[in-house]
Amino acid sequence: MKRYFLILFFSNIALAQESNVTFSSIDSLSESSSLSSCKHQIGIGLSKFVNSAFPSDSNAFLLEYRYLKTPAVAYRAGGDYHIESTKDSRYEVALKIGIDKLFRNYKKWKFYYGIDLGGRYLYYKNREQYFISTTLNPFIGIQYQLSQNFSISTEPGFFLKYNFRKDLKSFDSQNQTNWWESRLAKIGFLQLNFHF
Question: In the chain, at which end, N or C, are there fewer CB atoms within 10 A of the end residue's CB?
Answer without folding.
Answer: N
